[in-house]
């Protein structure tokens, strides 16, 4: 069986116009070419598609059944061709992006929508991970891009562009012992169990670990649930309170005696300068760079 896109298009047009001559006019062909294409199509399929008993061809039940699937098949063929063209111009076969757990509440999906608009055939995979694991994924090539907090010390392979500022705040359940104090001393913080968002690799020390005693989790949603339960205090995105106003009744933002309780960080889009990037990744990086120029 040898079926091509032109045969499918001619068949579809005949079905929609109701005649070989009308289809020929719409496609810019002579009627005999349309009639011959349909005849060859029937031979290839070993099916009779039209009854030729009157002035106009009458579609058979088999033709009607095939027509229902023809439109989608033509769309898929066109998408396949466009994807092949994009690959030939440097589009990656897939793009893996890791979002640091505390940033899942941000509007990162806006960037995914932008990629989908410009590269509709691109396979995009999104992962979430603690900061340390996100760095490891970039280093090992498991992700091409990472949305993560600024780092005190850059690794030699890291290259980045700044996106925005993000605030994290220390919190405890309203029923927790620390919430009874107007201000909390560093010693109290040190001796109270902290719920910390951290790598699954226990050999990696979390960046925002202050307490001597800590429990670890790999995402801020589970950390929030544990903190609400009174199992410890922790550091969470301030934006979570805007997303879920009920948290204001369940959590208290702690005030520290010795330093500000609000931690502000830049959020960066990071990639590995030692790994090759495809056109979609370059597009997003350049889009963010150009957006920064218009806002600075």
TrEMBL record:
Stored InterPro entries: LysR_HTH_N, LysR_subst-bd, WH-like_DNA-bd_sf, WH_DNA-bd_sf
Domain HTH lysR-type: residue ranges: 1-60
Record SUPFAM superfamilies: Periplasmic binding protein-like II, Winged helix' DNA-binding domain
Molecular function in Gene Ontology: DNA-binding transcription factor activity; transcription cis-regulatory region binding
Top-rank lineage group of the source organism: Bacteria
Keyword Nucleus on entry: no
Pfam families in the cross-refs: HTH_1, LysR_substrate
Keyword NAD: no
Assigned keywords, A-Z: DNA-binding, Transcription, Transcription regulation
Similarity comment text for this entry: Belongs to the LysR transcriptional regulatory family.
Protein name per Swiss-Prot or TrEMBL: LysR family transcriptional regulator
Organism, as annotated: Acinetobacter amyesii
Lineage: Bacteria, Pseudomonadati, Pseudomonadota, Gammaproteobacteria, Moraxellales
